[in-house]
Design a protein that fits this description.
This protein is mainly α and about 210 residues long. It is about 50% helix and about 5% strand.
């Protein structure tokens, strides 16, 4: 029986290259499974972050997580870079995950966020829908909570803002800012609970 991961990859490939989109997929290579390789925490990693991960049974990051974090740290240190925004689409494809919500709840994104914040730069991640929007595949509050957990203070406006029957004005944008700020004030335990709920929903989700 094929695993859920195999099915998810096949579904992702179909979404990328099906229905007249064949030109979008220019190369496909299937690599054999490889065992995970751990790495040391980067020297700039905050001690409280290392302790938090170790308290959850994670002694060291995977090598790809450490590499992503180091790359983010170097990007954040570039002179003239006032802030860093992490897009989820390309990162999800690079990690081989079936949807963006799993990326949002991933340890790799935690490391990237920590690198940006360690450099003292504001962090933006992905996009946000309208607070309380019940028409989204993943509850909006779980995404707001995930950004608050990462320390993000910025985000793009998701496509759900541009429905034909919706108006996008200053009030709608300010509502997003206010809601994210409110989530940033929630206790860390509540943010972790929301993150777990996001991961469970993402694992069961069939959306990209």
């Amino acid at each position: 029986m094929a695993s859920r991961t195999q099915h998810s990859v096949a579904e992702a490939l179909h979404r990328l290259s099906g229905q007249g989109r064949e030109e979008r997929l220019t190369h496909l290579e299937v690599l054999p499974p490889r065992s995970g390789r751990a790495a040391e925490w980067p020297a700039w990693t905050r001690p409280e972050l290392v302790e938090a991960w170790r308290s959850r049974g994670i002694e060291r990051p995977w090598s790809h997580q450490a590499e992503a974090a180091q790359a983010a740290h170097e990007i954040a240190a570039v002179p003239g870079a006032d802030e860093v925004h992490v897009g989820l689409n390309d990162l999800t494809l690079s990690l081989g995950l079936p949807n963006r919500f799993l990326t949002l709840a991933s340890g790799t994104l935690d490391e990237v966020a920590a690198a940006v914040l360690a450099a003292g730069k504001p962090l933006g991640v992905g996009g946000l829908g309208r607070p309380g929007d019940t028409g989204l595949p993943i509850p909006a509050d779980l995404v707001y909570a995930a950004l608050a957990h990462l320390g993000a203070t910025r985000a793009l406006l998701s496509r759900s803002f541009f429905r034909a029957d919706d108006e996008l004005g200053p009030e709608a944008v300010e509502a997003v800012r206010t809601h994210l700020a409110a989530w940033r004030e929630r206790p860390a335990t509540e943010l972790l609970d929301a993150r777990r709920a996001l991961r469970e929903r993402a694992l069961a989700s069939t959306v990209w």
